[in-house]
Amino acid sequence: MSQVETAEKATDxxxxxxxxxxxxxxxxxxxxxxxxxxxxxxxxxVHIKITYCGVCHSxxxxxxxxWKNSVYPVVPGHEIxxxxxxxxxxxxxxxxGDLVGVGCMVDSCQTCDSCKEDLEQFCExxxxxxxxxxxxxxxxxxxxxxxSESIVVNKEFVLSVPKSLDTKAVAPLLCxxxxxxxxxxxxxxxxxxxxxxxxxxxxxxxxxxxxxAMGAHTVMITTSPEKAEDAKRLGADEVLISKDEKAMKxxxxxFDFLLNTVPVGHDTNPxxxxxxxxxxxxxxxxxxxxxxxxxxxxxxxxxxxxxxxxGIKETQEMLDFCGEHDIVSDVEMIDMKNINDAYxxxxxxxxxxxxVIDMKSLN
Length: 363
Prior knowledge:
Blueprint: E1 17-23, E2 32-38, E3 45-55, H1 57-63, E4 80-87, E5 99-102, E6 105-107, H2 113-116, E7 128-129, E8 150-154, E9 159-160, H3 167-170, H4 176-186, E10 194-198, H5 202-213, E11 217-222, H6 228-234, E12 238-241, H7 245-250, E13 255-260, H8 269-274, E14 275-283, H9 294-298, E15 303-306, H10 312-325, E16 331-335, H11 339-347, E17 354-358
Parallel strand pairs: 10-11, 10-13, 11-12, 13-14, 14-15, 16-17
Antiparallel strand pairs: 1-2, 3-4, 3-8, 3-17, 4-5, 5-9, 6-7
Helix pairs in contact: 4-5
């Protein structure tokens, strides 16, 4: 029996809904239109008509099986903005017509220590990710993401979107936004701190906006001098070219915090050198080996840490912060039919700074 034909647990299959989506059936296949099945909403669920969905590099990794864990078909998309079309009887905080968002998670156990501390991203029993996770509600199924007409999500994983924001540019906040906001908040970045954001891309441009809004002296650290003007437009107080050995030496021991968004393995030692004693560099980009010389950490009690997304409570806090400070992502809009070309442009670094799909184009 195929995945689409598998019966929902304790529910008649005829009550599920067929919806239009875009996905890939193999690692070497383009994304194409397909039909997927969404479960009938339970009393704890929210049904959302998707209006915008961001394109994350993680979507590409999953589609192309770069992490060797993909289950096909893959329907990506975890930067979702849409309108509620129905709510279950136990849903009290949302109503039909509300503008909402869904990020990287759609469920977790809600009972482990991490979940109880509002850190569902570290669920000890395994969070249910928006796509390519085992679906709790449908037997022998995996979850499908936001490249689709609609989605059904547990009420605890739905987020309120401030109406003051440019809705289409909100979508990347649900991944790129919270990925950079969370470490800045966790390490208590405040007015007067000197913060370096390493790498100017989808993550880095959000890091600059957040650090600047928090009152930090914000420095864009990049290998590309041509990015200086744009970095300052985004809120950087200054730009440091990491290939300039003289400039890096002059900045030695001066940074309270570094947000490292470089997405591939690299030599971190030049960055460790510019941290103050007791300074911290947080990695949010590279999930592969990096080069570290222990002496640079030991001589100054410096730290390298890691961070992923935030929990639901913190993600809502981030959205509210964005509403207060009028922060959204810099986006380029695309139609669904252009998604395969957009993937190639993301891989080539040819986007400022996130693609967002207008989901009306799916129809």
